What does this fold into?
Amino acid sequence: MPSSARISPARNAAYEVLLRVETHDSYAAELLHSNLLASVNNADRGLATELVMGVLRWQQKLDQVVESAASKSIARFDVEVKLALRLGAYQLLYLDRIPARAAVNESVELVKLHGKRSAAPLINAVLRKLSKEALASFKQIGSNFGVNYSHPEWLVERWTKVYGEDAARAICEHNQKRPQTTIRAKTPAVLEELSREGISLEPAAMIDSAWHLTAGDVTQTRAYRERRLPIQDEASQLVALLGQGKTILDCCAAPGGKSAIAAEQNPSAMVISMDLHLHRVRLMRTLTGLPAVLAADACQLPFNRQFDCIMADLPCSGTGTLARNPEIKWRLKPEDIPRLGPLQAEILSSVAKLAKTIVYSTCSLEPEEGEEVISRFLAEHPAFHLIPVQTRLQQLAQEGSIRAYAVSSLVKEDFLRTVPGIHPGDGFFAAILEQV
It folds into this structure.
């Protein structure tokens, strides 16, 4: 078996991540911050991230290119071969700075390293054919934006029906770009400290204390190492600001960003963070330093008291986060969308027993996980009514937490709805429910 020394650390790490995503239903964003890349330097880590996310974002388009060159369906290739072809094709098609010879040769070495030596001539032939063709033709954006932006047709049709064609196109275009890195920093002292460490920022669009990174690596700063600099999508921060009260429970809290904002926004409150999975609870303790963090099932809350507010950011399809988690769009099937509804309803019913107010949210663009869940809940729980989100957003604007001009665009009926490509950041749905 050939040595991995003939393969660059970035390509080797990218291939290993893609292999686990493909074979273990793992998430690339988590693997890219795991021990798989522990020995990879920052420059190679950046390239590995670009390769992994690029392959996953453009998978459909890459498969078309490969199938055209190979005259064979990519589904007929072994997974190791398929990934090497995608990885090589992405470099040839989208990364001008990568020499074609490196992209081809190292893809060949990767399949050899992973026990598919017999496929090496095929990899070499297909990728060399690609490197000689007019690959620019595959980049052309035509009328079928689902195909051209590498999204499943059924998903694009759903978004077109719900949001309109222009918004659906904007969502697809947003999902193919590297998402902005957004931090939360409330004091001038922190901003000055970051500036001294070579970090450049610009104000975010909606939230006063949110900032977009324009240059530098915030993960290498002292503030980040000391857990004083949370990285969190702006729409996610916005949802967290909806919670208020003297006693707050975040019942599906990992990785803890919303809990941290709730504690910051309500400094005299008791904030409890909870998650079902122990490993995520341990990570949450490490990342946030929150004092009250526990592992428990939101369907069976382990409390005998009422909370002023329970924040319920529930498991969902995640279709609002495809820029960060592009593998989701290839795993989802149309029949998957309604499957989480019963779990969401079960958690909401559990939460309703102990909450004066519920902030329900999902990072999904699908009405089945947003408006329809709330409609059924209200029909089954007449003690609760809907508080218009605009009321809370206007309060936040008066307090100076969010920018007033942003309020109207964030409201859809009585709900909060952010749409990628229309609003900055991820797609979220949120509703505020209050017990009469």
Notes: The chain has four domains: 4-138, 147-175, 182-225, 234-435. The chain has a mean pLDDT of 92. Residues 9-24 form the longest helix (16 residues).
